Amino acid sequence: MGLPAQWVTDPTLGLPRTAALRVLGNGVVPAQAATALRLLLCRHLLARLPCASIRRSR
Protein backbone atom coordinates (compact mmCIF):
# COMPACT_ATOMS: atom_id res chain seq x y z
CA MET A 1 0.00 0.00 0.00
CA GLY A 2 3.01 2.25 -0.03
CA LEU A 3 3.26 2.63 3.73
CA PRO A 4 6.56 2.44 5.61
CA ALA A 5 7.38 -0.82 7.40
CA GLN A 6 5.49 -1.23 10.69
CA TRP A 7 3.35 1.85 10.04
CA VAL A 8 0.52 0.48 12.17
CA THR A 9 2.06 -2.77 13.42
CA ASP A 10 4.85 -1.17 15.46
CA PRO A 11 4.57 -2.58 19.00
CA THR A 12 5.32 0.85 20.51
CA LEU A 13 1.99 2.12 19.15
CA GLY A 14 0.10 -0.27 21.39
CA LEU A 15 -2.73 -0.77 18.89
CA PRO A 16 -4.79 -3.92 19.26
CA ARG A 17 -4.89 -6.14 16.17
CA THR A 18 -8.46 -5.12 15.31
CA ALA A 19 -7.58 -1.42 15.38
CA ALA A 20 -4.49 -1.98 13.21
CA LEU A 21 -6.56 -3.91 10.65
CA ARG A 22 -9.19 -1.17 10.61
CA VAL A 23 -6.55 1.49 9.96
CA LEU A 24 -4.98 -0.56 7.16
CA GLY A 25 -8.37 -1.35 5.65
CA ASN A 26 -9.37 2.30 5.49
CA GLY A 27 -6.08 3.15 3.80
CA VAL A 28 -6.80 0.82 0.88
CA VAL A 29 -9.99 2.55 -0.24
CA PRO A 30 -8.47 5.74 -1.77
CA ALA A 31 -5.85 3.78 -3.74
CA GLN A 32 -8.47 1.35 -5.08
CA ALA A 33 -10.83 4.19 -5.98
CA ALA A 34 -8.09 6.04 -7.87
CA THR A 35 -7.14 2.90 -9.81
CA ALA A 36 -10.76 2.12 -10.67
CA LEU A 37 -11.40 5.66 -11.86
CA ARG A 38 -8.23 5.65 -13.95
CA LEU A 39 -9.21 2.36 -15.63
CA LEU A 40 -12.76 3.51 -16.33
CA LEU A 41 -11.62 6.83 -17.76
CA CYS A 42 -9.10 5.12 -20.05
CA ARG A 43 -11.78 2.77 -21.37
CA HIS A 44 -14.18 5.65 -21.89
CA LEU A 45 -11.63 7.79 -23.71
CA LEU A 46 -10.43 4.90 -25.89
CA ALA A 47 -14.01 4.07 -26.89
CA ARG A 48 -14.46 7.60 -28.21
CA LEU A 49 -11.48 7.41 -30.59
CA PRO A 50 -12.25 6.81 -34.28
CA CYS A 51 -10.07 3.70 -34.35
CA ALA A 52 -11.59 2.14 -31.21
CA SER A 53 -13.17 -0.72 -33.16
CA ILE A 54 -9.74 -1.74 -34.46
CA ARG A 55 -8.27 -1.75 -30.96
CA ARG A 56 -11.06 -3.92 -29.57
CA SER A 57 -10.72 -6.60 -32.25
CA ARG A 58 -7.09 -7.34 -31.42
Can you give a write-up of this model?
The chain has helices spanning 17-47, 52-57. The chain has 58 residues and is an all-alpha fold. The protein has one domain (17-57). The longest helix has 31 residues, at 17-47. The radius of gyration is 19 Å and the shape is rod-shaped. The mean pLDDT is 75.
How are the secondary structure elements laid out?
Blueprint: H1 17-47, H2 52-57
Q: Could you tell me the mean pLDDT?
A: 75
Overall structural class, as computed from helix and strand content, comes to mainly alpha
| Terminal Cα span | 33 Å
Tally of domains: 1
Estimate percent helicity: 55-70%
Q: What letter string, H or E per element, gives the SSE order?
A: HH
Form type:
rod-shaped
Q: Which band does the percent of strand residues land in? A: under 5%
Number of strands: 0
Low-confidence stretches: none
Computed CA radius of gyration, to the nearest angstrom = 19 Å
For the biggest sheet, the summary is:
none
Number of helices: 2
In short:
With 58 residues, this protein is an all-alpha fold. It has 2 helices and no strands.
List keywords for this structure.
58 residues; mainly alpha; 0% strand; 2 helices
